[in-house]
Amino acid sequence: MIILKNAKKEFLEFGFEKASMRSIAKKSGVTAGALYKHFAGKEEMFNALAEPVYKKLLSLFDKYTDSVMDDIEANSDELFDDSVKGTTGVLKLIYEHFDEFQLMFNCSAGTRFEHIREKIVEIEEVSTKEFLIKAEENGLAPTRLSDTEIHIFATMSLTPLFEVITHGYPYEEAVKIVELMSRAQNYAWEKIVNLKVN
Predict the structure, then answer these.
(1) At which residues is the DNA-binding region annotated (predicted)?
(2) Domain ranges of the chain
(3) Which of 20, 78, 83, 173 is deepest in the core (most CB within 10 A)?
């Protein structure tokens, strides 16, 4: 849809708050009134661009969380490899929809995506707590972490992805960065949480 294509360009260039519906209408060859027949306002237009990709991201988080939980349940030595696969899978999604991630992370002030970094960290915290509970139930992680420590771990694990979105590294370089940081995180889990698998 030409309107959304031009809206994306406008949001990427000016950010949500400074983007102009009139400018989008002009670039799309329609009047502002005609534009409002399609979208009630800027936020609805922004959501139309960002929401489908955000839902894909959440679905991917759920998929890889389930995979790691299954590894814990089975005491599988694939746990850490699956963790790395999960992170690189998210990275692949980011690069498949790079403009939309730029919108959500760097151009969204004034929208519901404005605090997306904090929201994703919160999701990771919940997953980490579930992971630790499951690990403890299976005798894999005798050391407990405080909520503050979990928050720091969650932030550390996601920061490489946030940096990739912010700086737009070439995909091949981003893969190397994320894989390296994922393996470093896994090493930390082994040592600090005393996580052991067969």
Answers:
(1) 20-39
(2) 47-197
(3) 83
